[in-house]
Amino acid sequence: MTNLIDKPAVFTHIESVEKPDYRISKAWKVAPDVFSSFRFAWTGVIYTFKTQRNFRIHTAIALLAISLGLILHVTMTQMAILALTCALVMVLELLNTAIESVVDLTVGKQYHQGAKIAKDCAAGAVLVSAIASVFVACFILLPYGLHLIFSLL
């Protein structure tokens, strides 16, 4: 049996690994002002919208739900619940994208069970929130929609 103390640690050779130049990397900078923070945040939202099909689907469904709420004249409280529910799904989709990106950055193209669990759980959070949002939308919008349909008959 070999003594693990005699073997050099992986981190003893860390100096030979090429390191990124953090001076030119904007990813490592702290935003100098609040406007830059908002710009960086919107960059993340735009990136997710451009690259993630599910985020675009959630955005379209959220716009549809909010539009139906306005057309059907739901109460302000119900509109707030609809908007918050839609926002929750979109926030979780943003977090899912961030988690997937970090996991991919960490493990690369190699399979790792822990990476699979992290990505599956993040996707599961989006799924649970999306299913819950469908129920919330149905509870709020269906009575108004049915009332409108029956009043036209």
Notes on the structure:
- This protein has 153 residues and is mostly helical.
- The protein has a single domain (36-152), classed as Helix Hairpins, CATH 1.10.287.3610.
- It contains four helices and no strands.
- The N and C termini lie far apart (85 Å).
Indicate the low-confidence ranges by residue numbers: 1-17
What is the strand tally? Answer: 0
The best one-word shape is: elongated
Structural class comes to: mainly alpha
CATH top level class name: Mainly Alpha
Features of this protein?
single chain, 153 residues, mainly alpha, Helix Hairpins, 4 helices, elongated
Brief description of this entry?
This protein has 153 residues and is mainly alpha-helical. The protein has helices at residues 34-51, 53-71, 76-107, 113-152. Residues 1-17 have low confidence and may be disordered.
Topology:
Layout lengths: L33 H18 L1 H19 L4 H32 L5 H40 L1
Helix pairs in contact: 1-2, 2-3, 2-4, 3-4
